[in-house]
């Protein structure tokens, strides 16, 4: 696919998401989700890579099945309950619950998450970044209309953080590792939505930035597995520090940038007297932090002599300058956000 076609399809992906955000009717919402889906499929498919084609087919089948459930639920909601527009919603409605389950399937939230790590494993870093960030924006915006402290949302929060934490423990593929990390962060986003949409939006923006920092580095160095991390990062202290700050920020270790949104969510849940959920979220966050620390420790301590051919070229390019800026924001972004909140 040439660059012009990619730009066109990316614009269609953005258009679909913006349609979902601005939709006031079920039809407009569904059309936005479908435009987003149909535009994203050609981006991830590749004639020269069988794995990409298989991943695009799996992604299409899962999303199409979820879209079918979503469409039929919306139709029954309009016919039986007269909810043509999205300004009068009753959560205790079976069709509404089916809509929520379909959206969870689109997001890859447990127990509908099995397709997500496998698709992530077989696509490029750039497409994986889009899937972990932008592709979640539309369904999450729709969920914000329904979400409350109902039992079903509490269960999705707990299961998502648990599966995301435990699933990443024994992974050797970095793309699968980030997929399970994304599932864990999805639980935190659900928790943010319970309290305030603004907090969720802040979490989403910071999560997108942290993912970009890490994926940008992996994309430049063409790293896909843990053994490559241990070998390539051996020759460069700067790359080791970049890996450390990016991963610990994504894990939510204070005082890095990733701790700020989690700290705000913990405070918000405390105001709602959800202390047990707070404790569970913190414990699962510590599990994710454990496997990030394990990777960083191995990269710092192990001394491999092979595969050390990327980092020299890295220093003599603009990538070095970009990574310095990312590291600065990852290390000091927490204090910047706290100061901004103080003056708001």
Automatic annotation (TrEMBL):
InterPro entries: Complex_I_Subunit_2, NADH_UbQ_OxRdtase_chain2, ND/Mrp_TM. The chain crosses the membrane at residues 7-27, 57-78, 98-116, 142-165, 201-226, 238-259, 279-302, 322-343. It comes from the Eukaryota. GO terms for molecular function: NADH dehydrogenase (ubiquinone) activity. Its main location: mitochondrion. One of its GO terms (biological process) is mitochondrial electron transport, NADH to ubiquinone. The keyword Ubl conjugation does not apply. The keyword Mitochondrion applies. It catalyses: a ubiquinone + NADH + 5 H(+)(in) = a ubiquinol + NAD(+) + 4 H(+)(out). It is a multi-pass membrane protein. It is found in: Mitochondrion inner membrane. It is an enzyme of class 7 (translocase). Its EC number is 7.1.1.2. Residues 23-287 form the NADH:quinone oxidoreductase/Mrp antiporter transmembrane domain. GO terms for cellular component: mitochondrial inner membrane. Keywords: Electron transport, Membrane, Mitochondrion, Mitochondrion inner membrane, NAD, Respiratory chain, Translocase, Transmembrane, Transmembrane helix, Transport, Ubiquinone. PANTHER family: NADH-UBIQUINONE OXIDOREDUCTASE CHAIN 2. Belongs to the complex I subunit 2 family. Core subunit of the mitochondrial membrane respiratory chain NADH dehydrogenase (Complex I) that is believed to belong to the minimal assembly required for catalysis. Complex I functions in the transfer of electrons from NADH to the respiratory chain. The immediate electron acceptor for the enzyme is believed to be ubiquinone. This is NADH-ubiquinone oxidoreductase chain 2.
